[in-house]
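Researcher: Re-running this chain for the archive, since the previous output was lost when a drive failed. Same request as before.
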Amino acid sequence: GDAIAHSVLLGVALGWLVAREAGVLAGAMIAGVLSGMAITFIERSGIKLDSAMGVVFTASFALGLAIISVVKPTGVDLFHVLLGNVLGVASEDVLFTAIGCALVLGVVALLFRGLQFWSFDPQAAQVAGLPTASLHYVFTALLSATIVVSIQAVGLLLVIAMLITPGATALLLVKRLAPMMAVAAAIGVASGVGGLYGSYYLDVASGPAIVLVASTLFLVSLLLAPRRGVLW
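Model: Regenerated structure tokens:
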């Protein structure tokens, strides 16, 4: 997720070159999906995953920064791309996010059993006849889409926190995967709402405020979660 998020910056730059502001989100989506596919392909070619991610995201991020530094695109605020600007979300952004959310949830629901099996034991899933390579690519594409529709809210640099922290918090609270996903989503929503209120009353940037609320919920769960909390 972190590697794909950094790679999206290249798509932002190329999208602006092709269609100005109208092409930014489409470029980000394409770059995110292609970078995820590239990481998966390189990993499946025998290179370790961390090395594959390092090669792809540093090259993409550097090329995106280079393009932005040369063309200096108007209408693209690099600070907002990196750190988010949820208070600047327009109606078309909400529609784009809703469509992306529906597509991701639909595919996950359709392929849930296969994705669950592959996630826990990819070798057993392959022996059982599941198309594990296809599932890997589908999962990477879903992850990329999720990152792109999150850019407006928390930006590229903070999206990794919203990918990991709600799930890690839910892991401390429930044991089964499906309820864990529901709890993680609820924690993400609570972090978004709480972070917005906090950013308003404390006069801080909205993206970091959302992430700090999510991190606080994780810390509380780490200490007090039933049966698994440190202090429990």
